[in-house]
Amino acid sequence: MAYKRQIDRLPIPPANAKVHNVTCHYCIVGCGYKAYTWPRNQQGTLKNNAFGMDLGEQQGADGTWMAPSMYNMVKQNGKDVHLAVVPDHGCVVNAGLASIRGARMAENRPSRVTGTQQQRLSDPQVWRNGVWQPSTWNDALDLVARVTARIVNDYGEDELVVSMFDHGGSAGGYENTWATGKLYFDSMKVKNCRIHNRPAYNSEVHSSRDMGVGELNYSYSDYAVTDTIFMVGANSLETQTNLFLNHMVPGLQNGAKFIMVDPRRTVTVNAAEEVAGKDNVLHLAIKPGTDMALFNAILTHVVDQGWTDDEFVAASTFQGGEAVAGGSSQPAGLGSLDYAMQTCRTSLEEAAEICGVSAGDIRTAAQWVAKPHDDGARRKCVTAYEKGIIWGNDNYRTIGALVNISLATGNIGREGGGCCRLGGHQEGYYRPSDAHVGRPAEYVDQLLINGGGKVYHIWACDHYKTTLNASQFKRVLKKRSDMVKEAMDAAAGGSREELVDAIVGAVNAGGIFVVDVDIIHTQIGQNAHVILPACESNEMNLTSMNGERRMRLSERYMDPFGNSKPDCLIAAGMAQHMETALRNLGNDAYAEQFKGYDWQSEEDAFMDGYNAGNPEVTYDRLRAMGNDGVQEPVVGFEDGHLVGTPRLYADGSFDRHGRDDKRALFCAAEWRGYAAPGKAREAANHDFFVNNVRANIFWQNQFLDQDSDFVQDRFPYPFIEMNAEDMAELAISAGDLIEITNENGATQGMAYPTDTAKRGQVAMVFGSPAGSQGNVVNPGVSELILPEYKLTFGNVRKLADAPPQAQAVTFKSKEYKA
Amino acid sequence: MSKKCNRLVDVGRRQFLRGGAVAAAAAATATTAPARAAPANAQLDYPSNKLANIADLAVNEPLDIEYPDGDSPGILLKLGEAVEGGVGPDGDIVAYSVLCPHKGWFLNYNADDRTLNCPGHFSRFDAEVGGQQIWGHATQNLPQFTLRVDDNGDIFAEGCSDLIFGRPSNVL
Ligand code: SF4
Ligand code: FES
Predict the structure, then answer these.
(1) Is residue A127 within 8 Å of A117, Cβ to Cβ?
(2) How many CA atoms lie within 13 A of A667 on its CB side?
(3) CA-nearest residue of chain B to A752?
(4) Which of A60, A100, A809 sits opposite B136 (nearest CB)?
(5) Are A613 and A601 within 8 A, CB to CB?
(6) Residue A92 alpha carbon to ligand 2 centre in Å
(7) Which stretches of chain A score pLDDT less than 70?
(8) Interface contacts (A, B; CB < 8 Å)
(9) Is A809's Cβ below 8 Å from some Cβ in B?
(10) pLDDT at residue B9, as a whole number
(11) Contact, B157 vs B167, CB < 8 A?
């Protein structure tokens, strides 16, 4: 039986409620919301309220409505206040639309009054005598700094391993990436570091950047005026919801065609068909990992038909053959279009054979992407891609092959064009240079598995739920962490110096000292020795930018929970304690490197970092720009407004590669089958392609959703979409618990019969606390250490009949049926 | 195929237009006592409105209803198989709001798979599983009306499980 809230009335925000600008801190789209706060002992009336509406009247469709999930009671300046977080009809990004994630921002706040999110960490915790003891910041940071200082001082900075988010929104953002970046890349030069979602410190889109094309180059408004939306390996209705609904749907209504490249049929394809009609939607359900061959065939057809934009190619792209040769850290050569065509040339028939779709459909795709209009006018096409190819086969060449098409057709930097990552989190990266990390960057998971590193700092990452080769990673990290826990337990009753000595002894014997900074006690946090509580956006002021580089200040409207703090101030505290610890070790010169963190607020961190590089941009000016913000890069300040840039490369010069000629390069994307170690063998030896997918109801690894009755009631176990005939053959019924296994490990979930699922393919939701898909992802990565979560193969078996929670949920098709 | 529910039950329709006296009193409380914030989960006083008689219902043919007042459309549905929360001798009668709890578009009933579908942004709800959102943008399941069947087979609505779209209180 479905979860019922049993809420039938909500408090009404009074007319004098405080109003705060909020950018949704979940996905890349960054929808605008307004947060209203007002004293606990007040409320508005039906006629006189903050919305300025007669709430006694039933609101019509699309009207303003506060759902129960948009309400909570939180602490503000130490007092309980009502909170309503409601989508902003005035925001150009979402025009009043909320999604199933963003509309739950308020109820996902920690509240002592309503009891929501009591899993949030309120105090630093230190491993003591077999438990994590809540303690003070001074106590916890002192231990972190003493151990870390001993290790980097005595053994070098390569013994410090760091996992750190690089994103915006949530607890990321310019303030927090700057502070962590300053600590690890300026005060120190840590090279053994990785990012939250991949096992190295590297780009997801090396090739696009090497070709000169920054990956977020358009404006969302381009969708409304384009002729074709060419989407690859993405499911925007679920994962960039209001970008699809508020920008792509208008484009389709204006007559745009829609091409989707994805082995799986998703609700996005269904919705596009509903809006545009089936005739205007082409779903290329290719064999997993064969995207590059498809793109090469499209490019070849475009070139052979003369549909290239010759003027653009001549003026804006490299002309002299090879510009960059392929090599060990360069997975493909780069150069002119002619040069690239020598390796890219692929016939429609060859691609049809490789990809498992018809040559006719590939031809249609090429026509929709590039065939000029009857009057000779250029065809506009937005190309948008995401994890399907980013975490897929042969990342560098595949993305390069896709960018080739946009460049050849002159579809970057122009209205109705763009070749962009769709994105997951928002962006918010501002750090000192990471050049010392090198290319290829260190494969950090393997370093840890092989016994490398003595101290491990983790910032808001739960690799146990999300990394590849997770079974082994967890096993080894737990073992190494336990060695330190045992040493700490054995040192009970001793002085702080004796404790530090015991820890250093344990890490020298193969253990590892783990510091976890997060908002909750995570799965990887189970193996930490010190846990530091961070806060999220709106518990602090936070700046980020969305998928069209739209930067906003999302304002603080409540206090951090308990004694938690913004990550930037935690990093500052760590640096200050490092300075002291290094002085105590007698290394004054080293200690000096940890100066420059005397920030009182997140705004101080912003001024120290982002503002120093972008002097026009301040909190006050961003606040004045409201929920529409400004599109980066900011180029000036005029008449009280920040002046931004709607579209990159509008002048036809490309600079992301740093080349002086400012000409874009094409990628010699030669198809070579499954490129990463072990993938081809795994594919050959297993019955099922195991697709790694997202669902709109979950935000990332469910770190907040795991505490939501509404969400957990719908999917009490991670769903695994499966074809009915495959289920029948394996005697699996809806809701049965099933296991996916291969040589890397096993994971588990709940069978979800799906009529559109192909035989031999299952789709499992990623990052679930109740079943980590990463357990079955092999350690194989690309030359530049990009993981291939998407390319996984395994066998499926039944574990148990559907448990009561699973029996209670619906297993009907997710596709809208008129 | 979409099956828009057109069969209106006229009996009882007039009697609950704009709610009853109890509902009016509740609204007055909300407007005249601004200093007293109601706890979010206080349950309101609902009108008891006759929706139909069991004899009016055919399996899988929804009747248009309105509850708790004429501005809040819903459906009354006999499923033919007992469901949790179903009433009547067969335990198979349910009633839901048809204002989508995302942005308030009207839901359509699809008799083929017994779902309520939203043309606004493609959300779907399962009529056989308590209005659970199968897929969609709403942050709650479909408001389900609490039903009672008397000895004559008259079906009354007397409450609601969730906040109805477009209002701060189910009883205005
Ligand atoms: S679409 Fe993304 S940014 Fe917008 S409300 Fe949903 S989660 Fe937030
Ligand atoms: S109004 Fe129903 S899905 Fe948006």
Answers:
(1) no
(2) 33
(3) B134
(4) A100
(5) no
(6) 19
(7) none
(8) 203
(9) yes
(10) 36
(11) no
Name the 3-class secondary structure at B98.
coil
The answer, for B112 touching chain A at a CB cutoff of 8 Å, is: yes
Vertex A236 angle, CA A689 and A520, to 5°: 80
What tokens does B42 get?
Answer: 């206080």
Q: Which of B83, B103, B160 to mutate to test the interface with A (most CBs of A within 10 A)?
A: B103
- Ligand 2 centroid to Cα of residue B145, in Å, is 20
Q: Cα torsion for A183, A187, A193, A198, to the nearest 10°?
A: 50
pLDDT tens, position by position, A775-784: 999 999 999 9
DSSP state of A802: P
C-alpha distances out from residue A749 to A238, A267, A641, A734, Å: 20, 21, 51, 11
Residues from chain B that touch A818, judged by Cβ atoms under 8 A, are 1-2, 108, 110, 117, 119
- 3-state secondary structure labels for all residues of B11-61: CCCHHHCCCCHHHHHHHHHHHHCCCCCCCCCCCCCCCCEEEEEHHHCECCE
pLDDT in tens, A571-621: 999 999 999 999 999 999 999 999 999 999 999 999 999 999 999 999 999
Distance B50 CA to ligand 2 centre (A): 29
Residue B53: predicted pLDDT: 98
Active-site position among B101, B102, B118, B143:
B102
- Distance of alpha carbon A60 from alpha carbon A42, whole angstroms: 27
Q: Residue A768: name the closest of A689, A713, A695, A710 by CA.
A: A695
- Least CB–CB distance from B104: residue in A59, A274, A813: A59
Identify any residues that bridge with A82 across adjacent strands, giving them in sequence order: A38, A73
Q: Residue B146, class by beta-carbon neighbours within 10 Å (0-12 exposed, 13-18 middle, 19+ buried)?
A: middle
The residue count of chain B comes to 172
Q: Which residues between 118 and 137 in chain B have a beta carbon less than 8 angstroms from any beta carbon of chain A?
A: 118-124, 126, 128-137
CA B21 from centroid of its chain's CA atoms: 20
Q: How far apart are CA A642 and CA A622, in angstroms?
A: 8
Residue type at A92?
V
Contact A447, A505 (CB under 8 A): no
**Nearest-neighbour CA in chain A from B56: distance (Å):** 26
- The strand order across the sheet containing A228-232 reads A281-284, A257-261, A228-232, A381-385, A419-421
Distance from CA of A134 to the nearest CA of B (A): 32
Choose among A671, A217, A661: nearest CA to A406.
A217
Question: To which residue do tokens 């919305």 refer?
Answer: A51
CA torsion A785-A786-A792-A798 (nearest 10°) is: 90
